[in-house]
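Re: the request from the purification team.
They wanted to know what the chain is likely to look like in 3D before they choose a buffer screen. I agreed to run a prediction and write the result into the notebook, where they can find it.
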Amino acid sequence: MDLKQLRYFCSIYDNKSLSAAADAERIAVSALSYHLANLEAEIGAPLFTRKSRGLEATAAGERLYFHARSILKTVEVAKRDLSTFRDNVSGEVSLAMAYSAIQAIGVQLAKVVVEDYPDLQLNMIESLSSTTLLHLSSADADLGLAYNPPLTSTFKATPILEEDLVLIGKREIIGSGSEPVTVPELLDFKIIMLRQGMAARALLDHHKTLEQIYATSQLQMNSVHAISGAVREGLGCTIGTTLFMGDEIKSGRLHWRPIISPTLTRTLYLCEQTDRPPTIALETIRDLIRDLMVRAVNDGIWPARLIEAE
């Protein structure tokens, strides 16, 4: 198995056709078929089956594609990294960011890259925290900002800041006062939540409380945009940060109340894969993210508490 075989295999997978892949790779169909046959012989299992709409990957093909993409991405990153030992930072970095992080520092990060690093290409992906980890696993992202990620040996997760969560909704739903709401009182509200599953653990650190809220939650959605729209329509209220729907809160269209007994919090982590060596470009973006987050918290743009690095 070599890099050329893996590249040809990925092209067949993406194009679902030997002829289309041959055109893309500028190679004869017979030669491509030869490489595929050798690869299947080495794997010891067929990688594709023929369907009416073209080639479809087998279970072995799906697994190989997952690994092949990561291998090819790592090789490409290595080539770019070795070519960046010069004064100007260059290369490509993909960053998967939680919705709140996009709101707080996304535009400023893009501005700094455009103005100060003209040879650096930044790809920003807005995603739920669980999806962020999938982007990292599949090599679609080099860095990720995710809330409460599971602690595994696969990822290096560094806590950056902690946020308090509040109750957000229309005044006629959550009341017009500013007095705190206790956690037991939350169960009497129509709470709109992120759908249960991996995305849910990103909501808050208190998992027992989370399960209690889910038990009484009528609406569950897997989109922060859908949740914000439902809250604006008065279909219920939600638990989030004041940054989450800051414009609506500032305009008075929505209201918020603190949550106590206990105070609900969530922690944002900067994540990257442990087996992927950092590049100069990645280290540059990582440092920029940290600096911008510290500035956003200190300037009051991001209501949160910074976590001291150990």
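For the purification team: The chain has three domains: 3-82, 92-161+268-306, 166-263.
Please add any questions underneath this entry.
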